[in-house]
# Entry
Amino acid sequence: MTLSEAILNHPHLLIDEETARYERVGKVPGLCIGFVPGIMPGKWFNRWQQRYSAIAPLTEVALAEAHGLDALDAFADMVIVRAEDEPEARDKKKYHAIELYREQLVVLMPKEHLLTVLDEVPLAELSEEFLLQAPDEVPEWAEISADYRAANPRQLPHMRNRKDAVELIAAGVGLMIAPLSVARFYHRRDLTHRPLKGADERPVLLCWKRQLREDDREALLQDFVGITRGRTAASNRGSDSKEVALEKQRRQKEEAKQKRQAANTRRELEDRKKRNARKNGNLRQYQSQKGGAAGHKKK
# Structure
């Protein structure tokens, strides 16, 4: 199955239904990296294109929320996920994972909400607010709101993802705590957000499977890891960048040219000696010397 077919066979893993851009990917073996909503890996993808596109084209796949690890099973070589949404990514027996950065949490709310008067919202201010998420998604809030929720039980409405929650926030049903990048991704004119004070930032991970690979495939993955860690094009680690690969090809061509020239020079010298021997009547002696020299080399 081609990469294109693998992606198109899993539309539920994609962020949208615009799948035409995946119809021709994977014709040349390269690297496939998925990322969940709000993640902005453009700087790393651009560096890859500049350095490695000639030897390993990059396929970028925008994934639906919390489907990064599913994409690893289906078609992706690597994924960029939120650890809080996909905690299994921290399973060291199954995955390699490195932390790329941490995201600030914010509170999404309607523009008319009372909390908008604050520049940032202390966690305690949310102890009696109805949040459109399971308490275990934000343990800090779950702890301070436990008594109020026990005294005022309220069932969460059906939501497939954060996009559905955003619609309910706009309708005045409740609030939501989410990473700042998610708030920006689902931006609406009738909503706003404020930084949340008192909660830890959330990690974003680059994740790939622990499994045996051919050396060249493993090198490609390490090349991308190097890019996320700021490794420059001049580094001698990992696979050849486009510039290095071209320079290596140039040197190989130059070496081959020099070998051809040396071989031609040797042939011309032998021809000259043979002509001189024939001219001086010493051809038989010359051939005898050549035969003796050849026999000596074999010994």
Remarks:
- DSSP finds ten helices and nine strands in the chain.
- The domain at 105-200 is CATH 3.40.190.10 (D-Maltodextrin-Binding Protein; domain 2).
- The two ends are 56 Å apart (CA to CA).
- The mean pLDDT is 89.
